[in-house]
Design goal:
Length: 463
C-alpha cells in the first residue's frame, strides 16, 4: 500500500457509494472516513480535521450545500469536492461559486477521480505552505509568554512589537488577571534595556506610609525601624525598567513625587538630601478608568498624561472567543506535566462549561481552574465533575436565568439580538462556532442574523 497521502471524509447517504469510494481511496494511500449525512459529518469534524471533504450534493435531510456553508463558515480554506448526479450540474457549479474546489459527476470515473484528488491535494499543499509562512510572519508580532489568536490580542502584540524598543512610558489597562505584568515584561524584553533589571511593584499592596521608601529608598534613621540605608525600586532598576502595577491605587501625595521623578529623571531617598540621577523606563498598569479618577480628583491629571503616552488595552478573557480553548489546552499540558498526571485534554461537555463561563478572574482564574481540575481528574480527560462549583453552577440549567425580570418588562427582541451579538463576538463572527453556544442550528442562527440585520462591525455600511 502507498504511504498515506492525506485524510479524506466522504459524506454520502448511499452506503454502496461510500464503500466503493473507501476501497478506491485507501488503495491510493489516503486515510479515509465515511459518514451518511451532514449531522454525522459535523460531528466528525468536531473530533478531528480532514485535508479534504467529498460530499454528495443531494442527500436526505440537509444537502451538500448546507454542509459546504457550515464548513466555509468555520474554515474558508477547507478543501471540498462536490459529487453530483448528471441532472444537477448547475447546482454543482453554484457550489463552486460558494467555495467548493471542484465537482465530480456520478457515476464516478476512477481515473478522473484520482486526477481531481491529485489537483486538490496540490492546492491543499500550497494553502498549507501559505499558512506556515503567515504563521512565521505573525510570530514576529507575538509575545512568547502570552497565548492568543483573537484580533484584540493581535493588536496588543502589534503595539508591543512597535514600541518595545522606544523609551516611551506605557500605560497598560485591563481587568485583574488579564496578564498586564506579562505584557510589561515583554516590552522590557524587547527593548535595549533587556540586559538591565526589570523591577515590579504592586502599588495596592504597599501601605501609603511605606510606598515612598519602597520606590525611592531611605537613609539610615529616616524613620523608626530604618536601621540602615536601603535603595529603592528605582535605584535597583537603574538602566532598566520599573513596572508600577495598580498605579490607580497610589495616593495623591505620592503621585506628585512620582511625577517629579519622571520629569527630573532623579529621585531623593526618604531622609536624604542628595538628588540621585537615574535612567529608568516607566511602565504602569491599572484596572481603573484613570480618566474618571482624574475628574474625581483621585488621580493627578498631569501624571496621567505622563504615563499615558502609549496605551495598551488588554481585553478580558470573556471577549477573546476561542482563546479560552487555546489557553485551557496549554494549561492542561503544563500542569499535567508538572504534576505527573496523564491528563490528555478536556471533554466536550467540560469544554462547553468553560466556554459558557464569564471568567471574572480572567486568565489567572482559568489557569487556577485548570490546575485544580488536572489534580481532580479521575480519567485521561477533564470532565464536568472535575471542574469547580463556580464554573458548573453558572451554566446549570436548573438554576434558571441569572437575572430578575424588571417590573416594567423587557424588549425581548432587543435582548435576543444582544445575546446573539455576544455569541458572535465570542466566536469571532463564525456562525458555525456561535450556533452551538446558543443551542441553535447553523441555519436558525443564520436566519436570525438576517432577521435582525446583524453584521460583523467592519462590514456595516458607512454612513
Amino acid at each position: 500500500m502507498a504511504a498515506t497521502q492525506g485524510s479524506i471524509l466522504i459524506v454520502d447517504d448511499e452506503k454502496g457509494q461510500r464503500e466503493i469510494l473507501t476501497v478506491i481511496l485507501k488503495k491510493e494511500g489516503y486515510d479515509v472516513a465515511d459518514v451518511p449525512g451532514v449531522r454525522e459529518a459535523l460531528e466528525q469534524l468536531d473530533r478531528r480535521e480532514f485535508d479534504l471533504i467529498m460530499t454528495d450534493l443531494k442527500m436526505q435531510g440537509q444537502s451538500g450545500l448546507d454542509l459546504l456553508e457550515a464548513i466555509q463558515a468555520a474554515d474558508p480554506q477547507q478543501c471540498v469536492i462536490i459529487m453530483t448526479a448528471h441532472g444537477t450540474i448547475d447546482s454543482a457549479v453554484e457550489a463552486m461559486k460558494k467555495g467548493a474546489f471542484d465537482y465530480l459527476e456520478k457515476p464516478l470515473e476512477r481515473d478522473n477521480l484520482i486526477l481531481t484528488l491529485r489537483r486538490a491535494f496540490e492546492r491543499i499543499g500550497l494553502v498549507r505552505e501559505n499558512r506556515v509562512l503567515l504563521k512565521r510572519v505573525e510570530q514576529i508580532q507575538t509575545i512568547p509568554t502570552i497565548l492568543g489568536e483573537h484580533p484584540k490580542m493581535r493588536e496588543v502584540f502589534r503595539i508591543v512589537s512597535k514600541i518595545a524598543a522606544t523609551n516611551s512610558t506605557v500605560l497598560i489597562v485591563g481587568e485583574s488577571g488579564t496578564g498586564k505584568e506579562l505584557v510589561a515584561r515583554a516590552i522590557h524584553d524587547g527593548s535595549q534595556r533587556r540586559d538591565k533589571p526589570f523591577m515590579a511593584i504592586n502599588c495596592a499592596a504597599i501601605p501609603d506610609s511605606l510606598i515612598e521608601s519602597e520606590l525611592f529608598g531611605h537613609e539610615k534613621g529616616s524613620f523608626t525601624g530604618a536601621n540602615a540605608r536601603e535603595i529603592g525600586i528605582f535605584e535597583a532598576a537603574n538602566g532598566g525598567t520599573v513596572f508600577l502595577d495598580e498605579i490607580g491605587e497610589m495616593n495623591v501625595a505620592m503621585q506628585a513625587k512620582l511625577l517629579r521623578a519622571i520629569q527630573e529623571k532623579e529621585i531623593r531617598r526618604v531622609g536624604g538630601k542628595v538628588n540621585i540621577p537615574l535612567d529608568v523606563r516607566i511602565l504602569s498598569a491599572t484596572n481603573k478608568e484613570l480618566e474618571q479618577e482624574t475628574r474625581r480628583g483621585n488621580f493627578r491629571e498631569d501624571l496621567f498624561y505622563r504615563l499615558n503616552v502609549i496605551r495598551i488595552n488588554l481585553p478580558p478573557l470573556r471577549e477573546r472567543g476561542g482563546d479560552v480553548k487555546t489557553l485551557a489546552e496549554y494549561f492542561v499540558k503544563k500542569y499535567s506535566q508538572a504534576s505527573g498526571i496523564g491528563v490528555e485534554g478536556i471533554s466536550r461537555p467540560a469544554f462547553k462549561l468553560l466556554m459558557n463561563y464569564t471568567w471574572p478572574g480572567n486568565v489567572r482564574q482559568l489557569e487556577s481552574v485548570i490546575e485544580r481540575s488536572v489534580l481532580m481528574a479521575e480519567s485521561n480527560y477533564i470532565e464536568p465533575e472535575d471542574l469547580p462549583a463556580e464554573v458548573t453552577a453558572t451554566s446549570a440549567l436548573g438554576g434558571g436565568i441569572p437575572f430578575e425580570l424588571p417590573p416594567e418588562g423587557i424588549a425581548f427582541e432587543e435582548l435576543e439580538k444582544g445575546i446573539i451579538v455576544k455569541a458572535m463576538e465570542r466566536a469571532d463572527w463564525v456562525i458555525g462556532k456561535a450556533a452551538p453556544l446558543l443551542g441553535m442550528s447553523y441555519k436558525t442562527l443564520q436566519y436570525r442574523l438576517e432577521k435582525f440585520g446583524i453584521e460583523r462591525p467592519e462590514r456595516r455600511p458607512k454612513l
